[in-house]
Amino acid sequence: MHELSLARALLTQLAAEAERHAFARVLRVKLAIGALGHVDPDALAFAFEVASKGTLAAGAALDIERVAGAAHCLGCGADVAVHGRGDFCPKCGGGHLVVTGGEDMKIRELEVA
Ligand SMILES: [Zn+2]
Fold first, then answer.
1. 38: exposed, middle or buried (C-beta count within 10 Å: 0-12, 13-18, 19+)?
2. pTM of the model as a whole
3. Distance 66 CA to ligand 1 centre (A)
4. Ligand 1 centroid distance, CA of 34 (Å)
5. Could you tell me the distance, in angstroms and rounded to a whole number, from the CA of residue 98 to the centre of ligand 1?
6. How many whole angstroms from 37 Cα to the centroid of ligand 1?
7. Which of 56, 62, 6, 64 is nearest to 26 (CA)?
8. What is the full per-residue pLDDT of the chain (113 aa) written as tens digits?
9. Hey, what domains does the chain have and what are their CATH numbers?
10. In what order do the strands lie in the sheet containing 26-34?
């Protein structure tokens, strides 16, 4: 399951942060997820809850924010925000968009103890 591997990657990242910043517990994680990243926020929240058991992030709240993807239009040259693959350019209506961002997952904020 895709979301489970993401949750595990997130926990690995949290453990590395904990080592760097010397905190013992994660209380809340604010995540930004690109709209083009094929991530189901509910599935990710569930996977995180399961995968975090017994870790420093056990019971941590997960806030997931969806951020628009970014694309460059080959038709009119504009850089535009897109919400899904196969979107048309909002400026010229063309269908030749090259995705330039919005596929990744980023930690926005951490609340730690
Ligand atoms: Zn365009």
1. exposed
2. 0.80
3. 23
4. 21
5. 11
6. 22
7. 56
8. 589 999 999 999 999 999 999 999 999 999 999 988 888 899 999 999 999 999 999 999 999 999 999 999 999 999 999 988 889 999 999 999 999 999 889 999 999 99
9. 2-68+102-112 (3.30.2320.50)
10. 61-67, 26-34, 105-112
